[in-house]
Design goal:
CATH architecture of the largest domain: Alpha/alpha barrel
Keywords: Carbohydrate metabolism, Cell wall biogenesis/degradation, Glycosidase, Hydrolase, Polysaccharide degradation
Number of strands: 30
Organism: Triticum aestivum
Strand content: 15-25%
Structural class: alpha+beta
Shape: globular
Protein name: glucan endo-1,3-beta-D-glucosidase
Largest sheet: 8 strands, antiparallel
Family: Belongs to the glycosyl hydrolase 81 family.
Number of helices: 22
EC number: 3.2.1.39
Strand order of the largest sheet: 7-8-9-10-17-14-13-12
Amino acid sequence: MERRKMAQVATYVAVALAAFLFWQSTRSPAPTPPPSPGASVFPRAESAVLPDPARFFAPHLLAAPLPTSSFFQNFALNDGDQPEYIHPYLVKSAAAGLKVCYPKSVHSPSFHAQAFVADLTVSSPSDAAAAAGAGWRHIIAGFDDLSVTLDFSRSLRAFLVRGSPFVTVSTMFARCPVDISIASVHAFLEAAPRDASLTRWRLRMNSGQTFLLYASAPIRLSMSSITQLAAPGFLGVIRVAFLPHAAMEAVLDRYSGRYPTAGVAAVDRPFSVDYAWCTQGSGDLLMLAHPLHLRLLSKDSRVRVLEDFRYRSIDGDLVGVVGDAWALRTDPVFPTWHSTRGISEDGVPEIVAALRKDVDDLASSRITTTSSYFYGKAVARAARLALIAEEVGCPDVIPAVHRFLNATVTPWLDGSFEGNGFLYDPKWGGLVTRQGMMDTGADFGFGIYNDHHYHLGYFVYAIAVLAKIDPAWGREYMPQACSMVADFMTLSRGAGASYTRLRTFDLWKLHSWAGGLTEFGDGRNQESTSEAVNAYYSAALLGLSYGDKPLVSTAATLTALEMLAAQTWWHIREGDAIYEDDFTGNNRLVGVVWANKRDSGLWFAPPEWKECRLGIQLLPIVPISEALFPDAGFVKELVSWTAPALARDGVGDGWKGFVYALEGVYDKESALAKTRALASHDDGNTLTNLLWWLHSRGSPGADAAAAAGIAGAAAVDAAGGTAHGMLLDMLAAEESLSSA
């Protein structure tokens, strides 16, 4: 009993110490200032496979790095005519017209999607005629974190702001009246003004839908055909909104006068995202919040939530929020090098035995792949061994890991690696690989900006560990390390940077997208949330190695948000209401989340391969993984759902290992027995790592906060006042910063 109590105290002290070290890293001066985040140190190269951004982006935007995984990426690819989901509407630009759809759900047990139908098309007939002969393409006139401005014809500009219940179109930059056409694939049953000013109209269709149209000046709509309305000589702003329910009409009327033209999301405070919109017009701003917004919306926000004002969405109900500035706050998550719960004393000998064997194998297991993804997994796998060695008190094996990492990582940083390497693409502004710049399929599309945070996250993890155990090496290769992080984590905007702002992270959805410069009818996509979490977690560790306060703070914030988004949209609990019942009932995990679709299959596996679906949402197993799966009840649901798939012929031991790892959350002894019987492991995993994970599992009833690296106050009291004081001081500092 006494021994168990001492182990518990040691665990709490370790947790408190990790929290204190995180607090210290974000509050104390950085001992070594990192290079400018805008700097690229890798050789420049001209890609043979990248599209030309000048076809769609306005000339003044081409001087700065451009987004490659954004919510409007389809507008800049091929003909630019595939839809994008600008919540709550699917929007498509084609033939000098803007097509707007309030989508209906299409679903089955294996997928959930939204179908595009051109409910309304706004255009100028004269512009459309001229465009047909001149090959007109729309122009992306501006973009930011929360919006894109699209000149979809010579006279019409759309302010496409995410979460606006209105689609706003302006003729103002035309400087003269413009003839307007409003068409539909449906028949108009009614197109009538709702007041004598001719600035408010009701458009009712045979589809059962009703749209409301608002204009800044009188507009005279007439029916030129059953599917087309015409308005001559209009100059001003038009706003259209779908009317989900008659009771919402008064709300739309009230807030129709103020419209957003742009928006910014600030990530300059730990565990905070602050939205602010640029607006025009009169009155208050009405926007829509998705479920994660509502969960994080701070009481500090001077906004009003309209609970009964709701739009349907594939991401869950979108709820009305009145106010032009939001404050989002998430609970702190503290990235640590080692386990947050501590390793059980009786498990240490077994881990050490496996560790010695796995480290010995490094000398004889040369990395043969030249793939940036698989190579990154291999070096991160080795780096895990050094940190586990620190934790179990086995320092004598660390020099061998050090030699291995030095020999395998350095060539990718100094350009001497044969067969591949990182280069800088000045066209879009980012890293590509030698293989990827010649072949779109090489390195899983890294050369066309697919999966950047996945690949680089593994490398950054290995670099962070090597810099920790060899600070002199870390200082020598700091420019390359910081450049790799900057590729997917730059915060700055404008021509002074070498990399686009937060290449993969979506500050409105609050998670990453892995899809790059490939046109998809359902928009961007992401398969593995755990690899996304690993990227930001690894960046935080690099910040700890270099004493870089802003990097640790930003990376920890993105880590926390990515995990919450994964738990919101990828993890499906029994009875969840976000998705349709047939899809929810058949799935405990989404395979691929698209902007406009949810798939149960993976890029590499059908829906029936549930062990792969579980594994791809867990790998790599690192200390932050327990915060990604903090709910033991859901984990048990997930493992029970997955387990029958393990009886299928051909299931690899590597995938089984991930299932057993999660089983260990609630049944450690069973998981240990199964893990010991495995003959092989995933190429990013080892027996050492699995044993480390299983022997550091606490009881299923442990405080959920411990899984995020924070011990509950009552628990810390058991360990003594010093640890308690560290945590209270840290949380008080965060609160003070948030209210400043």
